[in-house]
Amino acid sequence: MPRLALYALAVCVLTVAAAVVSFVQGQWIGVVWVLMAGLSSNMAWFSFRRAKAERQRQQQTAGV
Predict the structure, then answer these.
(1) Would you say 57 and 39 are in contact if contact means Cβ atoms under 8 Å apart?
(2) H-type helices in 1-64, by residue range?
(3) Whole-angstrom Cα distance, residue 44 to residue 32?
(4) d(CA 35, CA 39)
(5) In the chain, which end has fewer C-beta atoms inside a 10 angstrom radius, N or C?
């Protein structure tokens, strides 16, 4: 798994935890944490898919 995807996944987990803590404490700043979690999960997904596509492209060119 690419390093950037792992970092983004770690940020996603931390922001979800921060959102839960914020909502439990009754603070509406948790909405911002949820938005950040969505952004970081999309970054992780995009990085993972890009690396997977690159691996497939390299395998196709090596196989030819």
Answers:
(1) no
(2) 3-24, 30-63
(3) 18
(4) 6
(5) C
